[in-house]
User: Fold Phosphoribosylglycinamide formyltransferase from Lysobacter defluvii IMMIB APB-9 = DSM 18482.
Amino acid sequence: MPAPYRIAVLASGRGSNLQAILDAITTGRLDAQVAGVFSDRPAAPALERARAARIPAFAAEPRDFGSRDAHEAELFGHVARAEPDLVVCAGYMRLIGAATVEAWTGRMVNIHPSLLPAFKGLHTHRQALQAGVAEHGCSVHYVTAELDGGPVVSQARVPVLPGDDEPALAARVLGREHPLLVATLRLLVSRRVQLGPSGVLLDGEPLAAPLRLDSAGVLHRPDLQPD
Ligand code: GAR
Assistant:
């Protein structure tokens, strides 16, 4: 039997995306194991979720270190010792330095609450409401040195409805983040999706546009199967 595919999860807060991963593994929808959960916030509920699932949980608080680099070296030193095949940033709210990103290129993905390249950075739901867009959503992308700028693997869309405020829109997007992350991880774990020299590869072929999650939670190539 091949060794289980190992995922390290970085999370700063609530950890609902982490929980979606754990639940998918428990119910046999994701053939992987979470090798560890790592945080910049010792009080992050995500760490509690890890401990409840008997998964190693580690936190390093930036203020306990002399520099951003020193903090990152400590945190990612622990990540490396967990020997993950993939690092998943699931609500990890700190910028990751270029040297660390470089070291994990092609092996680190992030879930971001917008349809990238729209609305990078923070307060994405506020940005979407202020821009007056009709559609919003979430993306899973490879992490590169450019903030929220790496190649996008997959996206899920939601409508922006009349009367939406930030919490309402955030909740609608979050409801799609969980199935999007699990469906995308299934492709990464099976190594059907990889990062090639000029972008995302699916089954060895360049992906012209991000995969899109349908209402049944299945990812499609929008270039082959338009809506
Ligand atoms: C999610 O909405 C995720 O997309 C977002 O933080 C939330 C974490 O929720 N990530 C970012 O904004 C990264 N820039 P969770 O802790 O319940 O998974």
Observations:
- Residues 166-189 form the longest helix (24 residues).
- The mean pLDDT is 97.
